[in-house]
Amino acid sequence: MTTEAAALSGRRRQAARNDTAILEAARDVFLADPKAPISAVAERAGVGISALYRRYANKEDLLRQLCRDGLRRYLAEAEQAEQEADDWAAFTTFVTGVVDADVHSLTVRLAGTFTPTPEMGEDAARAVAAATRLFDRAQTSGRLRPGVVVQDIDLILEACAAIRLPDVARTRELRRRYLAVMLDGLATVEAGAPPGPAPEPGELNWRWQRR
Amino acid sequence: MTTEAAALSGRRRQAARNDTAILEAARDVFLADPKAPISAVAERAGVGISALYRRYANKEDLLRQLCRDGLRRYLAEAEQAEQEADDWAAFTTFVTGVVDADVHSLTVRLAGTFTPTPEMGEDAARAVAAATRLFDRAQTSGRLRPGVVVQDIDLILEACAAIRLPDVARTRELRRRYLAVMLDGLATVEAGAPPGPAPEPGELNWRWQRR
DNA sequence: AACAGAGCGGAACGATCCGTTCCACTGTTA
DNA sequence: TAACAGTGGAACGGATCGTTCCGCTCTGTT
């Protein structure tokens, strides 16, 4: 509990608790099933439906907020990884951080369920820029095989996000396992370029079309 | 069209055509969205809903049939790959074949939406046996890094199946790209065992619980 | 002590969706 | 021409879900 919340008393305190409880519940629920009903979020958070609608005008609002937080988290992971001195380590730290935080599901799997705000567009642009910087550093480290492009990261994250078990901790363990395998695969310099035309920028943009 | 169908005339011929049209449409539709309505299948196949219900008692029946075909296809890919003389090539041919056929989505993503038949259980056991044989051969080839187990294949297939774009051909191209990266990652003998406790047999069985 | 109102739980409502049934219609076969 | 297999698609009934609404509780103020 934050000191801010602790300073409040009685009803106010509970309200502050609910703020975070609802966000966490929404994260868990929509991560497991992006189409989950809003009542499931309320149930998970241990509150009534009113508590939700007091904070968010409608379901779309909540989803948008969640995605916004996901983008922010992605940026935070990138900025933290950029501190790393070693170029290759910075790259792997970044990717591992994003996979661990399950941020991919929060952004991409929720895409198309709401109309994005201009602010989110800017954050997304920042995210691309940061990821590109990290990727370029990985390339200069010389450990990356030829023919790999930044966009490959998106799809690798997508593949990792598909690993999902009932147990959250186990899910993370296994995701790290296959992420490590893929990173080892990306680091086999002697293998030459991976097959097939590499993904192009914007090839995944269709996701953001309203469904 | 089969010769059997060509021999028939008029209404019978159309009926035979519908048989396959419906199955193909169902495959496409449920591959894209396992929870799709049955009317979407009819629309895609260009037939009315009656044509569906004449052939399958209900939705569950159709899903079960689809999954059954998927298992068969999996077995076929395995048996064909076992012809391959080279141990490592047999393994990669098998995995690539399964990814190309998008069989994983047909079986696992549909799991839990119907009650499986005993016959499917037997097919599943045969599938596990065949996959194990191919995996063992890959191990004896010496190109597989230590610490990798058969169950890893399931999860790698799962990761590949997550790559999905509107265009089917492009989807296959990109899946092959990341499958290749992962296979290269699995073949880095010098890297030692990948991190984390390896997946255990039956760790993915929860999928088949009725939802 | 009385009161105003913030915050809340959950029933109720209305819209939508979807699986399944039903019936009229069309060719085909005998 | 009669019987009927095969079909299209409207119609039905149940379930789901987003949202609204009402009555209650607790809190801070007068």
Automatic annotation (TrEMBL), chains A, B:
Kindly indicate whether the keyword Transcription belongs to this entry. Answer: yes
Which residues belong to any copy of the HTH tetR-type domain?
Answer: 16-74
Q: Where is this region: Disordered?
A: 191-211
Q: Keyword Transcription on this protein?
A: yes
Give the DNA-binding residue ranges: 37-56
- Any one Pfam family here would be TetR_C_43
Q: Which UniProt keywords apply?
A: DNA-binding, Transcription, Transcription regulation
Q: Which PROSITE patterns match?
A: HTH_TETR_2 (PS50977)
What is the protein name stated in its UniProt record?
TetR/AcrR family transcriptional regulator
